[in-house]
Design goal:
Glucose Permease (Domain IIA), 14 strands, 10-stranded antiparallel beta sheet, alpha+beta, rod-shaped, about 425 residues
């Protein structure tokens, strides 16, 4: 059976690949090589496979080349879009920074105005009390004068009765009638002068009281306008800070309590106003001023707290956001990556103390900064470190340069934020502060 099948297959192959002989002739001899049908089939199949593979490989290369060209064009378009977006964000950041500077200037102006307002209110209160005291003194003097006047008038009536009766004046039995009349005239004239003086003083006091009342009304209107402006400024300034801390997962009241407990600024927190020393209820203006002072104290504490938490960006120059916080290939990427040019300046994102400034496996050249509220920031893969361990830094201080040290595939900054030793997404803080700083 096998022989017959082989004969049939050979016969079929003979039709397409007849047996051939290749003669090789030399000067002294002639030889030949017999090419059987099976050998020709194998050679043909191999040649066909080689040609087919060549065609397919060429097609793949052409398709890759065309696709790569499209990808390059798409990448260029995306890069242009990204750069335009980056420029827009840069302009927006500059605008936010200008707004922050303007807000700080408004805050300083508000402090100056509230100080002036407080002085004016104190002066007004002192002048009002002086006026009340003066009016009381004038009224007392007027009552005494009127009492004396009545006494003199009674004495005058007694003297006049005695004169008409032709008798001697009381206590002046030896005094002549002319002397009595002169004494009476002098007493009456003195009484009239005192009366006129009292009336004039009373009129002057009333005019002064009216002027003071008008001045107080004008001052109250001016103070009311100042109060409204300060209240609006406090609302505009404090509300975004409340939202910023809440967006970062930080309880504003708890944070402010910690800042207040450790406050060591000159003069301490702003103190409430107090005009009364008699145990009286404070006036409405006093309560209003104290509410504004409380808001200004809260704003001041927010300013201190914001400088101690990592709300600022570690980079000020152009960069590309290349990788975010989260799991990659089953492993946690504990920070955010920002790519840029080699040597791009890196800045501290909050006030703190440098606790590490050296090489660390995987991180390369690494800087760790310990901040308030149990927060630590890390800046990895630097090409150069510009701070030392134990050094105190402020937000915005340059701490190093971007590089490619450690386990890194390109020049970039690996930025981490850790709270209580646990890594959290640093973009939470950057996004929370985008409408404030």
């Amino acid at each position: 059976m096998r022989t017959r099948l082989a004969i049939k297959i050979h016969a079929v192959l003979e039709k397409f690949f007849p047996e051939r002989r290749v003669f090789l002739r030399s000067d002294t001899d002639t030889r030949f090589i017999r090419l059987r049908s099976e050998t020709q089939l194998i050679a043909f199949t191999g040649s066909a496979l080689l040609v087919g593979w060549t065609i397919i490989a060429t097609a793949i290369l052409l398709m890759d080349s065309i696709g790569a060209g499209n990808f390059r064009e798409q990448a260029k378009r995306e890069q242009m879009t990204y750069m335009s977006r980056l420029n827009a964000l840069s302009l927006e950041r500059d605008s936010r920074a200008a707004d922050a500077v303007a807000a700080q200037q408004r805050f300083n102006s508000a402090l100056e105005r509230i100080s002036v307002m407080q002085s004016e209110l104190l002066n007004s209160e002192v002048r009002r009390r002086e006026l009340e005291t003066g009016i009381e003194v004038i009224q007392t003097t007027l009552r005494d004068t009127m009492t004396k006047k009545k006494g003199i008038e009674a004495e005058y009536a007694e003297l006049q009765t005695a004169v008409e009766a032709g008798g001697a004046l009381p206590g002046q039995s030896d005094m002549a009638d002319g002397d009595t009349v002169d004494l009476l005239a002098t007493a009456l004239e003195r009484t009239a002068q005192e009366r006129d003086k009292v009336v004039a003083d009373a009129q002057d006091a009333l005019v002064a009281a009216d002027n003071m009342a008008a001045e107080l009304r004008q001052m109250e209107e001016k103070n009311d306008a100042i109060f409204r402006q300060l209240e609006e400024a406090m609302t505009i300034s404090v509300s975004p800070l409340d939202k910023m801390f809440k967006a970062a997962g930080m309880n504003p009241d708890t944070i402010l309590d910690k800042v207040r407990a450790g406050y060591s600024g000159q003069g301490g927190p702003l103190m409430p106003l107090s005009f009364s020393t008699k145990g009286e209820q404070p006036a409405a203006e006093t309560l209003r001023a104290n509410r504004i002072l409380n808001q200004m104290d809260r704003l001041n504490l927010y300013r201190i707290a914001a400088s101690k938490a990592p709300f600022a960006s570690p980079l000020k120059d152009a960069y590309r956001f290349t990788s975010g916080f989260g799991y990659r290939w089953g492993r946690l990427h504990a920070g955010a990556d920002f790519a840029g040019s080699h040597g791009t300046p890196i800045y501290a994102t909050a006030d703190g103390i440098v606790v590490h400034s050296d090489w660390q496996s995987g991180y390369g050249k690494l800087v760790k900064i310990q901040h308030e509220f149990g927060i630590e920031t890390r800046y990895a893969h630097m090409s150069k470190i510009r701070v030392k361990k134990g050094q105190r830094v402020s937000r915005g201080d340059r701490i190093g340069d971007m590089g490619n040290t450690g386990r890194s595939t390109g020049t970039h900054l690996h930025y981490e934020v850790r709270v209580g030793g646990k890594a959290v997404n640093p973009m939470i803080y950057l996004k929370a502060a985008k409408d404030v700083f």
